[in-house]
Every structure is written in structure tokens, then in C-alpha cells.
Design goal:
Number of helices: 5
Strand content: 25-35%
Distance between the termini: 20 Å
Strand order of the largest sheet: 3-2-1-4-5
Radius of gyration: 12 Å
Number of strands: 5
Helix content: 40-55%
Order of helices and strands: HHEEEEHHEH
Structural class: alpha+beta
Largest sheet: 5 strands, mixed
């Protein structure tokens, strides 16, 4: 999980800086299970900043660590996880959708 947060996410964010420049808000990712934790992605700063911290956010995504790894490895679709309530979104669902496209899209 830590590699997804510290390597994969920053790589994907760097690939999509132009798209990110049009997004604003703070997204919190709560990962439960093995190697879980809480991280925040601050899209109000350009470039976006990702750091381990809890607190208020415009959108909170909660997922189990094993599902996050499968989503990152393209073994599982984030949208399907959402529909199956395996990935939960509280707050700004549009922000979660747009960021999901950036992090896990083609």
C-alpha cells in the first residue's frame, strides 16, 4: 500500500498535471487493513500535494488495502468497487470520480 501512495500516485499525478490544474479541493483517502492509514491529497496547491494526515476534506474515499492494491494493479475496477460498496465515497463524488480517472484511468 505504501508503494501505491508514495510511488504510483505521485507518478500518475505528474502525468496529469494539466488535468489536475482544473481541479480544486482536498481529498482524503482512508485505507483500512494491512498497511492502512490516512492520506490527504491537496488539489488547491499546484502542483498537488500528497501527505499522510487526517483532518477535514471535501471528499473522503474509504477502501480496504487489498482492494486498493487490486485497483492499482488493474485487477479490479474502482467504479465497480463503488457500486458494490467496497469503495465508499463521502462528500464531493464528482471530485472522487475525476481523481479516480486520473489515478486509475488509461
Amino acid at each position: 500500500v505504501k508503494e501505491v501512495i508514495t510511488d504510483y500516485f505521485p507518478h500518475r499525478l505528474g502525468m496529469h498535471e494539466e488535468s489536475l490544474s482544473r481541479l480544486n479541493g482536498i481529498l482524503k483517502l482512508v485505507v483500512k487493513g494491512d498497511d492502512g492509514g490516512v492520506w490527504k491529497l491537496d488539489l488547491n496547491h499546484k502542483p498537488a500535494r500528497l501527505f499522510a494526515e487526517d483532518g477535514s476534506a471535501d471528499c473522503t474515499i474509504t477502501v480496504v488495502s487489498s482492494d486498493l492494491l487490486k485497483i492499482a494493479n488493474r485487477e479490479l475496477n474502482a467504479g465497480e468497487c463503488f457500486l458494490q460498496a467496497r469503495l465508499r465515497v463521502a462528500g464531493d463524488e464528482l471530485l472522487a470520480y475525476k481523481l479516480g480517472q486520473i489515478l486509475f484511468g488509461a
